[in-house]
């Protein structure tokens, strides 16, 4: 029979004494069963438990309160550990512990002003009380490189960030490409500087890091609003219209300046639309035929609808094309600019009609839709690529700059620089297995 490694001696049993029992070994669920079988034989209360698994190796921790002064419970635990080739440890978070001395994990409890020791509300919280919880989604479709992971770890150490949980999100294989971290960040951390350093590290490694509060709203988003051009579709529709009108170079130059934030959006729209004066309205049908949806757009929208989300496109483009995209992707709302048409209905006049959907208007429309659906901005995801999207990206609970211009990436809360829109689901913590389940019906 094997001998268990007991790394801390069992305490002397005391009535109402709390003891943290931890057993770790290679036999998976047998470890859990061994501990619980022992506890079932002796008078004790189970206050809390935690399980950690790495392949077949399991660590099972149980916080108990002894209801007897018999040490037999510790004898049985040692025999069970030996049977399953396990490592057994004890921790006594109690100032009344008697000889023999027991190792105290000072991270597992905190000492109060009168010297009393306060047990945290759960083992999961034990080393991480009085901190702010964040989720960090890390992804690189080409794989997370050791050099990046090393820099990421050093970043966490520098800011005294503790990693509470780590989950792999992409399917098994040779490459780790998506991971989800649960972090506890000191409340004293300079979050502005932290986010600046995070962005610089992300950019230098070509790896996306999306940091967001790990609270109830992360798991309960209900509305997603998308920009259209260069987000749901690959093209800028005004450039495509201009291509048919023979003024694509002039329009594209203004579009680029606007997306970079070099020109006010309303002014850029006015200049570009003016160049379309006299263009046939039939060009819109030709543009529809040439539109290419971004990789993953159809899957993402179908998956989100299955999960009960409401979806909207809020575009600085034009309403006929926004409605086409809405129909193709099964969205619930579409807002965009309206081109003014000549009296005979055959050509554009080079003007728009009604309120211009600029950056501020996009944020206002986000609020309008959220109120209509009965959700708060914290339950909204916004996805866009241009400077005119920043208002809604910063208004939403999760704002994502998708393959955006450098200035937009610097100012956006989160970024995705991968090819597919499917990675929006990754930022919500969904794994490849989850995505397979969501796709199973099509």
Structural features, described:
- It is a single chain.
- With 442 residues, the chain is an alpha/beta fold.
- It has a 7-stranded mixed sheet, with helices on both faces. Strands 1-5-2-4-3 form a 5-stranded mixed sheet, covered by helices on one side. A 4-stranded antiparallel sheet has the order 9-10-8-11.
- Helix 6 (248-259) runs antiparallel to helix 7 (265-274).
- The protein has 3 domains: 5-127, 2-Layer Sandwich (Alpha-Beta Plaits); 131-213, ACT domain (Alpha-Beta Plaits), CATH 3.30.70; 223-439, HAD superfamily/HAD-like (Rossmann fold), CATH 3.40.50.
- It starts with a strand and ends with a helix.
- It is built from 15 helices and 18 strands.
- 34% of the residues lie in helices and 25% in strands.
Give a short synopsis of this structure.
This protein is an alpha/beta fold and 442 residues long. Helix content is 34%, strand content 25%. Helix 1 (29-40) runs antiparallel to helix 2 (72-83) and helix 3 (146-158) packs antiparallel against helix 4 (191-205).
Tell me the layout of helices and strands:
Elements: E1 5-6, E2 18-25, H1 29-40, E3 44-54, E4 57-66, H2 72-83, E5 87-91, E6 110-111, E7 117-118, E8 131-139, H3 146-158, E9 162-168, E10 178-186, H4 191-205, E11 208-213, E12 223-226, H5 237-245, H6 248-259, H7 265-274, H8 283-290, H9 297-306, E13 310-318, H10 319-329, E14 333-341, E15 348-353, H11 359-373, E16 380-384, H12 390-395, E17 398-402, H13 406-411, E18 414-416, H14 423-427, H15 432-439
Parallel strand pairs: 1-5, 12-13, 12-16, 13-14, 16-17, 17-18
Antiparallel strand pairs: 2-4, 2-5, 3-4, 6-7, 8-10, 8-11, 9-10, 14-15
Helix pairs in contact: 1-2, 3-4, 5-6, 6-7
């Amino acid at each position: 029979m094997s001998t268990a490694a007991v790394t801390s001696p069992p305490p002397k049993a005391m009535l109402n004494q709390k003891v943290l029992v931890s057993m770790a070994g290679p036999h998976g669920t047998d470890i859990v069963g061994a501990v619980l079988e022992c506890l079932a034989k002796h008078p004790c209360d189970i206050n809390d438990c935690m399980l950690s698994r790495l392949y077949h190796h399991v660590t099972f921790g149980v916080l108990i309160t002894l209801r007897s002064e018999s040490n037999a419970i510790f004898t049985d635990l040692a025999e069970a550990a030996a049977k399953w080739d396990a490592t057994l440890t004890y921790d006594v978070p109690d100032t009344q512990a008697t000889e023999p001395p027991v190792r105290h994990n000072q991270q597992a409890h905190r000492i109060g002003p009168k010297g009393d020791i306060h047990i945290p509300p759960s083992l999961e919280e034990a080393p991480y009380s009085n901190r702010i919880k964040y989720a960090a989604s890390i992804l690189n479709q080409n794989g997370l490189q050791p050099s990046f992971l090393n820099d990421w770890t050093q970043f966490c150490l520098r800011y005294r960030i503790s990693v509470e949980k780590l989950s792999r999100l992409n399917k098994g294989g040779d490459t780790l490409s998506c991971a989800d971290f649960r972090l506890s960040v000191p409340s004293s951390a300079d979050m502005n500087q932290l986010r600046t350093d995070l962005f610089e590290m992300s950019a230098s490694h070509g790896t996306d890091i999306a940091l967001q509060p790990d609270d109830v709203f992360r798991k309960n988003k209900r509305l997603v609003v998308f920009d259209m051009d260069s987000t749901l579709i690959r093209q800028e529709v005004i450039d495509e219209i201009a291509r048919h009108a023979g003024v694509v170079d002039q329009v594209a130059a203004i579009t680029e300046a606007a997306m970079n934030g070099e020109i006010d959006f309303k002014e850029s729209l006015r200049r570009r639309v003016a160049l379309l004066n006299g263009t046939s309205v039939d060009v819109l049908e030709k543009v529809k035929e040439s539109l290419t949806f971004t990789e993953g757009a159809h899957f993402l929208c179908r998956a989100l609808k299955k999960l009960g989300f409401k979806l909207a496109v809020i575009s600085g483009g034009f309403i006929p094309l926004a409605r086409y995209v809405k129909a193709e992707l099964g969205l619930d709302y579409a807002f965009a600019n309206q081109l003014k048409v000549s009296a005979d209905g055959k050509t554009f006049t080079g003007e728009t009609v009604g309120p211009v959907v600029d950056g501020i208007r996009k944020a206002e429309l986000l609020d309008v839709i959220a109120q209509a659906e009965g959700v708060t901005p914290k339950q909204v995801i916004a996805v866009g690529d241009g400077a005119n999207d920043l208002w809604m990206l910063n208004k939403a609970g999760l704002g994502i700059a998708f393959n955006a211009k450098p200035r937009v990436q610097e100012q956006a809360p989160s970024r995705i620089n991968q090819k597919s829109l499917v990675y929006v689901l990754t930022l919500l913590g969904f794994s490849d297995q989850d995505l397979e389940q969501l796709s199973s019906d099509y």
